Amino acid sequence: MQKGQRKPNAKPRSKQQRKYNGTAKQLANRSSRNKARRKMVKSVGKGALKGKDVHHMDGNPKNNSRKNLSVSSVKKNRSKNKR
Question: What are the CA-CA distances from residue 71 to residues 8, 34, 56 (Å)?
Fold first, then answer.
């Protein structure tokens, strides 16, 4: 599969989703979450993060201090973030 192509079974995104995900605020948040994941890979290793999420304990994706980050399962992390 070439870069930029969608997987055949991927759900197509609506115009509204593309517009929202392209806002400066969402781009900054996604960038910060990716930075947190890279930081945790250096700290605990790539194998420990396979199939897991990096949880921001205070809920702020821009606070990437090591004390604020922990590794949790996808289900547990995403249920915490819905509160």
Answer: 30, 14, 9
